Amino acid sequence: MALKATIHKAQLQIADMDRHVYGDHALTIARHPSETDERMMVRVLAYALNVTADDLNGRLEFTKGLSDVDEPDLWQLDLTGEVQHWIDLGQPDERRLMKAHGRARRVSVYSFASSTPVWWAGLENKLTRAPRLAVWQIPAEQSQALIPLAERSMQLQISIQDGSIYVSTSSASVEIHPVALKTASE
Q1: Residue 74 pairs with which residues in a beta bridge?
Q2: Which of 43, 89, 142, 162 is the residue whose CA sits 20 to 30 A from 33?
Q3: Domains of the chain, with CATH numbers?
Q4: 43-62, pLDDT tens digit by residue?
Q5: Which residue stretches of the chain are H helix?
């Protein structure tokens, strides 16, 4: 018998001064049985970093993710079903990234493992032909600091200013400084 996803609810209050995106978002997160709290919280973080101020070009949504290898962790589809933004977590291989690059107007990757520098060193030169790809490293100690914030029902305040991210609850706060490994040229 297959294990079922665990449902988490998150109320996000986002204040992104860098992109001038502000708003409250009610998220329902289906956590795959093999997904860790750390990975789930990085998904929430990726949502906050990429949600748009309006839905004119489609909504940013969680996908089946780990349950479907043909989908990213998050994506933004426009009204015609075209992929505007493909967001993967972890350390996807070159073939997956180039396939995503062919399908989407924008591709972002958020890697959060301590092995990210080794993964990126083997991939960096192979992805020069992917101008719409951005790759970010969330330092492992910072992504792991998000674990205590993970609950079945969460209220998170996320403030972004000058590239620094502050994730807070009523009882704890985590500061994150993502490192750009590759920026998109578009």
Answers
A1: 62, 87
A2: 142
A3: 6-182 (3.10.640.10)
A4: 999 999 999 988 888 899 99
A5: 37-50, 94-103, 116-123, 140-145
